[in-house]
Amino acid sequence: MKCSLFLLLFLCNGSALFAQNRLKGVVIDTESNKPVPYVSIGIISQVDGTVSNVNGEFEINLYAKITDADTMRFSSVGYQSKAFLAGDLKNKFKDGPLSISLKRSVNQLKQVVINSKHATVKILGYETTSKLFGLGFGTNSIGSQGGVRLAVKHQNTNLENLSFFIIQNSFESLTFRVNIYEMKDGKPGNNILNNNIIVKIGDKQSGKVTVDLSSYNIYVNKDVLITLEWIEAKPSTNGTLDIAAVVFGSTYFRQASQYLWKKKGTGLGLSVKTNY
């Protein structure tokens, strides 16, 4: 059975609301003045959100429910987040497209050397290649993400690769970002990565996808949340993607770029090969 659970969860975003304002602009690096790709942009705790394209360009609709006092946040892997009042951005936009600058911020990932001859390998998450049950993304899911909590039981656990299984894919091309969040009080906290981990999916590609994480030297000592964030799709107007899932377990999901995290009792089929 293929289930549109993800689609329903991510897309109940009040699409019938009339868009009152549309903001456009570009996000640039403060030091280099170069565009920052794939920046998560949105109104905090609201479903109004998007992701900048590979050239740092963005366009976002602000619906009638958004007030001038609401806060729009710009965040990206390896950069300090920046927040503005929606009213201030609307006033600035009257003078032309917005230019938002972000400053780099490096997280210090722990560097560990492990003797691979004696390393213990373990799969964390939900490993499945079944075509009987899946969760789906749709074209309006840009900026949404879903993932699973990895139960880390050993110090200096290395995340070697991420795998998932595509049941059905009607898109010409897809782009995902892998995010890894620390867990605080049972909820996702800060993203621990310094660099974007981008996953490209080809024309109607299906089957198992494995993402090599070894070059990123990711070592963790406690539970983390690993997610797939939907950042680009072609065509952008229609299409579906079903990823294998399991009926047990749970999935953390975020409906939009700066929206609240929620948890659902169905496990998205993300599995991570680890060693310690």
Please describe the topology of this protein.
Layout: E1 2-3, H1 5-11, E2 19-29, E3 40-43, E4 49-51, E5 57-63, E6 71-75, E7 82-85, H2 86-93, E8 98-102, E9 121-125, E10 134-138, E11 145-150, E12 157-169, E13 173-184, E14 187-191, E15 197-201, E16 207-212, E17 219-220, E18 224-234, E19 240-246, E20 251-254, E21 261-264, E22 267-268, E23 271-275
How does this model look, in words?
The chain is mostly beta strands and 276 residues long. The chain folds into two domains: 2-6 and 110-275, Sandwich (Jelly Rolls), CATH 2.60.120; 15-102, Sandwich (Immunoglobulin-like). Helices cover 5% and strands 48% of the residues. The strands form four sheets. Strands 1, 9, 10, 12, 16, 17, 19, 22 and 23 form a nine-stranded mixed sheet that branches. Strands 11, 13, 14, 15, 18, 20 and 21 form a seven-stranded antiparallel sheet that branches. Strands 4-3-6-7 form a four-stranded antiparallel sheet. β13 (173-184) and β14 (187-191) form a beta hairpin. The radius of gyration is 19 Å and the shape is globular. Mean pLDDT is 88; it is low at 4-19.
Find the CATH topology of the largest domain: Jelly Rolls
State the order of secondary-structure elements, H for helix, E for strand.
Answer: EHEEEEEEHEEEEEEEEEEEEEEEE
Low-confidence spans: 4-19
State the separation between the terminal residues, measured CA to CA.
Answer: 36 Å
Helix content: under 10%
Tally of extended strands? 23
Regarding CATH, which class of the largest domain?
Mainly Beta
